[in-house]
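Sharing a chain and its predicted structure for anyone who wants a worked example. Both blocks are below, sequence first, tokens second.
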Amino acid sequence: MKRIGVTGHRSIPDECLAHVEEGLRAVFGGHPGPLEALSSLADGADQLFAAIALEHGAELTVVIPSGDYEETFQDPRSLAAYRRLKERAAQQVVLAYPRSTDEAYYVAGTYIAETCDRLVAVWDGLPARGHGGTGEIVAYARTLGKPVTVIWREGVARD
């Protein structure tokens, strides 16, 4: 089974959203055979990736960074989407961090990068804004020699 992981921004600008959705559909539509999708189900890219993966029949593995992860969701709709997607997961990997910290996010991201065969990055190409951010996880995956597919509309700035 081929494993595809995700890292990406929590905020995807409206003018980039259709491009990102199309790119994610192309990733999953271009792979014959069984797939496993790895995601932490954060707002934005992670949830979109997971939903599209499930649409394409992939098995979802959720990597939960911490015991209090649900408390980090500020938007009730995002929390509801997280719970719906988590219920549909084939498996959950719960990391041993009691609290959500940058280190917990970094370890979740590196776990996904290490476990996947290919990393999809919904990424504007800019440096990470904090430890465990998208740019840092992309750089880590590349040091491992993992293929990284970047999806973003050129010229669109992230919020």
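Comments welcome. Residues 69 and 100 are 6 Å apart (CA to CA).
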